């Protein structure tokens, strides 16, 4: 059968077999650095990287087991808790005026929300086809700024905690215990005076007979403080765990302080 046109004649012959081309992915060797097949080239490299990271993580867990430090002690009011290392940068950021106090919502919700939201939307915000960091200055600059900021805030939080609370650092690191001495054992035969038993807010932490509980043992508090110092602590509190202003009457404070100063 022939089909004629103005300048050419096309002839078809059904006896000529069609050339069958197998369904094989084209060779990407002619386009170096441009693209590659997802399987196995791309996926195999991803698996290899994941396997190396997993093996490295397992080696670290075996060679450096989690430290076991002091048992939890509710009577140890000197203990200063600290977040785990991966939250230290947020913990440190909340110490700055622009992220604390009246701005605490900005520091706890707005800043982390914008940061993690941008990370989540990164594939849609940065649609450049370039893969070299040098040709993606905006994305690379933001990433480096975030990494430097996180590393600095993490270091600053740990360094500041080490300077202010060296005993906690020596006993096993951030947020994992305290080397404070155990409280003195309570005297079971001791009976507190009526002036103490009238202070229900004090007994809630220090016990009915001053034996200690959430707060320290006060049965021999007079060996450490005089009446004036005790009265000042009752009025103004004492870091980290003693709040001030629980007793409003100055006369009651003076009476209680005089009694506690005699306990030696």
TrEMBL record:
Residues 181-264 form the Cytochrome c domain. The keyword Transferase does not apply. GO terms for cellular component: membrane. The chain crosses the membrane at residues 47-66, 103-125, 137-157. It is found in: Membrane. Residues 28-155 form the Cytochrome b/b6 C-terminal region profile domain. Coiled coil: none annotated. The keyword Cell inner membrane does not apply. Residues 163-186 are annotated as: Disordered. Keywords: Electron transport, Heme, Iron, Membrane, Metal-binding, Transmembrane, Transmembrane helix, Transport. It comes from the Bacteria. Pfam families: Cytochrom_B_C, Cytochrome_CBB3. It is a multi-pass membrane protein. InterPro entries: Cyt_b/b6_C, Cyt_b/b6_C_sf, Cyt_c-like_dom, Cyt_c-like_dom_sf, Cytb/b6-like_sf, Cytochrome_c550/c551-like. GO terms for molecular function: electron transfer activity; heme binding; metal ion binding; oxidoreductase activity. Residues 177-186 have a biased composition (Low complexity). This is Cytochrome C oxidase Cbb3. It comes from Brevibacillus gelatini.
């Amino acid at each position: 059968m022939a089909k004629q046109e103005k300048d050419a004649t096309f002839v078809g012959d059904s006896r000529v077999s069609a050339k069958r081309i197998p369904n094989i992915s084209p060779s990407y060797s002619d386009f170096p650095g441009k693209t590659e097949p997802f399987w196995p080239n791309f996926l195999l490299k991803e698996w290899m990287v994941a396997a190396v990271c997993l093996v490295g993580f397992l080696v670290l867990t075996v060679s450096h087991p989690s430290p076991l430090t002091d048992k939890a002690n509710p009577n140890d009011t000197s203990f200063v808790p600290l977040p785990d290392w991966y939250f230290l940068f947020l913990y440190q950021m909340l110490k700055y005026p622009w992220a604390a106090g009246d701005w605490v919502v900005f520091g706890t919700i707005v800043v982390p929300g914008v940061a993690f939201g941008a990370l989540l939307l990164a594939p849609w915000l940065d649609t450049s086809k370039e893969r070299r960091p040098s040709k993606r200055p905006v994305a690379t600059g933001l990433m480096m700024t975030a990494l430097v900021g996180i590393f600095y805030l993490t270091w600053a939080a740990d360094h500041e905690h080490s300077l202010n609370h060296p005993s906690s650092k020596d006993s096993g690191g951030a947020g994992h215990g305290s080397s404070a001495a155990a409280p003195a054992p309570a005297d079971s035969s001791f009976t507190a005076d009526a002036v103490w038993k009238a202070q229900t807010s004090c007994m809630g932490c220090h016990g009915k007979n001053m034996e200690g509980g959430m707060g320290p043992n006060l049965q021999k508090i007079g060996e450490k403080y005089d009446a004036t110092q005790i009265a000042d602590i009752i009025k103004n509190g004492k870091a980290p765990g003693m709040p001030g202003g629980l007793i409003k009457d100055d006369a009651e404070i003076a009476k209680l302080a005089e009694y506690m100063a005699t306990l030696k």
